[in-house]
Design a protein that fits this description.
By secondary structure, this protein is α/β, with parallel strands linked by helices. The chain has helices at residues 37-44, 59-62, 65-72, 83-87, 98-106, 179-191, 208-216, and strands spanning 2-5, 8-10, 22-24, 27-29, 51-53, 76-79, 116-118, 123-124, 127-131, 140-144, 149-153, 157-159, 166-169, 196-199. The chain is 25% helix and 23% strand. The strands form three sheets. The protein has a seven-stranded mixed beta sheet with strand order 1-2-3-4-5-6-7. Strands 8-9-10-11-14 form a five-stranded mixed beta sheet, with no helix packed on it. A two-stranded antiparallel ribbon has the order 12-13. Helix 6 packs antiparallel against helix 7. Zinc ion binds at residues 58, 60-61, 154, 200-201.
């Protein structure tokens, strides 16, 4: 586990930075695919974890949520709009077309009851919840004003999923039910000028100018 800022750690994964899991205070943020259960539990063993929260209920973020919550006996929290997906058997989809089949077959975890539906302004692990819909109906990001640290989720990627190269980009349309709305969410996050931006996919970015420039160049 790597400390990115005080009270904010990124868990190790393979390939590095491909599918990210964070520990914010004592809250585990996201849980990768269902194959990640062992690597997550091994890295947080001995740490105080009081809850598990999602940026959104897609298969590459909630895959090990049921397993982690069950193993640790902690509640699951996610954005209000993603509660139905998380609680409905087979409800988690992250894509349209053939990708749905791939994700359901290899990545998605089982449904799990959501103990707390997160809304704008809620506090999670020392961060404030920001509603950032578009990539999913209930997508949320987590913002800590004191040091301008932001957990972006998938509003933007800092990775090209095909080449594995870092670089800012919008999430693929095939995985994003409402791209215009997601772009609005990206604009909102860029206005915050995060000193540290932590993505669902890709390495952390400590360059608020690059974040703002990328978003500013997106078509209106
Ligand atoms: Zn994702």
């Amino acid at each position: 586990m790597k400390e990115l800022a005080e009270g904010l750690c990124q868990l190790r994964g393979w390939p590095p930075n491909a599918i990210n899991v964070y520990l914010a205070g004592d809250v585990l943020i996201d849980a990768a695919t269902r194959r990640a259960e062992r690597r997550i539990l091994a890295q947080i063993s001995g740490r105080a974890v009081s809850a598990h929260a999602l940026t959104h209920a897609h298969p590459d973020h909630q895959g090990s949520s049921h397993a982690v919550c069950t193993a640790l006996g902690v509640p699951l929290w996610c954005g209000q709009g993603d509660v139905p997906a998380m609680e409905t058997p087979g409800g988690v989809t992250g894509a349209s077309g053939w990708q749905t089949w791939v994700q359901r077959t290899f990545w998605a975890g089982p449904e799990h009851p959501v103990a707390r539906a997160l809304v704008e302004g809620d506090e999670v692990g020392g961060f404030a919840v920001l509603e950032t819909p578009g990539h999913s109906p209930g997508h949320v990001s987590y913002w800590r004003e004191s040091d301008r640290a932001l957990i972006v989720g998938d509003v933007l990627f800092n990775l090209n999923m095909l080449t594995g190269r870092p670089g800012l980009r919008e999430p693929p349309d095939a995985f994003t039910p409402d791209p215009p709305r997601n772009r609005e969410s990206a604009r909102r996050l860029a206005e915050l000028r995060p000193a540290l931006a932590c993505f669902g996919h890709g390495p952390p970015l400590r360059d608020p100018g690059a974040f703002a420039d990328f978003v500013g160049a997106l078509p209106r």
